[in-house]
C-alpha cells in the first residue's frame, strides 16, 4: 500500500468540455501545456521535460468527461486524472485534477499543477 495521499484540485474556466478534453487527452493537446514533448502509442503516453521522459498508460477515459493515467513507475493504486465537470449554479466548466503525493509534498505538487494549469488557461484564452 502506498504512503502517498490523494488530493484534488479544481479550476473553473470558460471553455467547452469538448475543447478542454482535447487538451487533456491527446498528445498534441498535452504538449501544448503539460510537457515539452508528448507522444502516444497503444494507449501509453511518453511525456518529456528537459530531456527526461516519463511514461503513463491510460487506465480509463470517457469522451468529454475524464481521462485517468497511471505512471508506469508508480504503484498500481496511484493515478492522475483530469475530470471535466459543469457547475450547476454558474454553468461554468470545471477542470478537476486528482493526483497523489507524499503528505509533505501535497502543497508543492499543488503549486506545480497550478503553474501548468495556468499555461493551459493561457492556451485556451482564459
Automatic annotation (TrEMBL):
<dbReference type="InterPro" id="IPR045736">
    <property type="entry name" value="START_2"/>
</dbReference>
<feature type="domain" description="START-like">
    <location>
        <begin position="1"/>
        <end position="125"/>
    </location>
</feature>
<dbReference type="Pfam" id="PF19569">
    <property type="entry name" value="START_2"/>
</dbReference>
<dbReference type="InterPro" id="IPR023393">
    <property type="entry name" value="START-like_dom_sf"/>
</dbReference>
<protein>
    <submittedName>
        <fullName>ATPase</fullName>
    </submittedName>
</protein>
